[in-house]
Amino acid sequence: MTAPVPGTTTASAVASPGGSRGASRGTRRGSRRGSPSWGASVVLALIALCFVVPLSWLLLASFDAEATYETALPASFSLTNFTAILTPEQTFVPLWNSLILSGGSAALTVIAAVLAAYPLSRFNTRFNRPFLYTVLFGTCLPITAIMVPVYSLFVQLNLLDSLAATTFFMAATSLPMAIWMTKNFMDSVPVSLEEAAWVDGASAMKALWHIVVPLMRPGLGVVFIFVFIQAWGNFFVPFILLFSLENQPAAVSIFRFFGQFGTVAYGQLAAFSILYALPVILLYILVSRVFGGSFAMSGALKG
CB 112: neighbour CB atoms within 10 A? Predict the structure, then answer.
């Protein structure tokens, strides 16, 4: 190690007085740049307020026997609104119809999407891209634009007020986006796993259901939840195709809380809305626990 030559100064000695101050200034500037500004915090607070206020009204009004459209603490918490709506014709039958429509359309859509996405993901042909563009065009069609011919078709086939027919139609409307999503998930599964199954004598369909589908269960869970939520909150299609009270889902039966001359049962409406949201939340928790986690590629590639 050499000593510094007399009469000369080292770089650290020269840079130490101003360098330390420059470094501290740079640190302060970096911290100021990294920290969120007050403007962004205010904007985020306002956006959060737009969601918190309606949810607060929903919770408070459901326990208020004299609830109005204003957000206020009830004079006394009561379960009167829940006891008033917990009847078969008011809540249980509409929720059961919603489960049939949403669960049936989601299951049919997932099965059809897997069968449609498999050749698009595994076989490269010149028709793949035009077909995908056609599917993408199907997602852009508004449902209101096709309801007139669909209604005429249901009338001719005598399928009006049929839960089964409406379920199949709602599954068909959700299929284009489901195909896109399922293909992206299927592309993540290595083809080498199927090739190993083919060598062992498995057919293409057997490899699909026993190799590919189990590995993409989290993706299928996402598609199922996506389609289920779309069907659960769909008001327009059941309103047009289902008109009897025993077949109407909860999204349509919610109109019963709106009376004539602008009267609204606010407390019962809030209580029904909470019960209406519970199945979706429970489904999300169930699917996230059953299909949670990433693809088990490491375990599949062993051996």
Answer: 17
pLDDT-derived band at 21 (thresholds 50, 70, 90) equals low
CA separation for the pair 228, 244 (Å, rounded): 23
Residue 190 reports pLDDT greater than 50: yes
CA angle 32, 37, 41 (to 5 degrees): 145
User: From CA 26, how far away is CA 20, in angstroms rounded?
Assistant: 10
The predicted model scores a pTM of 0.77
Place of tokens 């869970």: 221
Phi, psi of 258 (to 5 degrees): -105, 110
Token pair belonging to 169? 């139609």
Task: Note whether 206 and 197 are within 8 A (CB).
Answer: yes
Higher pLDDT, 206 or 292: 206
Measure CA 274 to chain center: 18
The domains found in the chain, sorted by start residue, are: 35-78 (no CATH), 84-301 (1.10.3720.10)
> In this structure, are residues 248 and 238 in contact, taking their beta carbons and an 8 Å threshold?
yes
Conformational region of residue 261, where left means phi above 0, alpha means psi within -120 to 50, and beta covers everything else: left
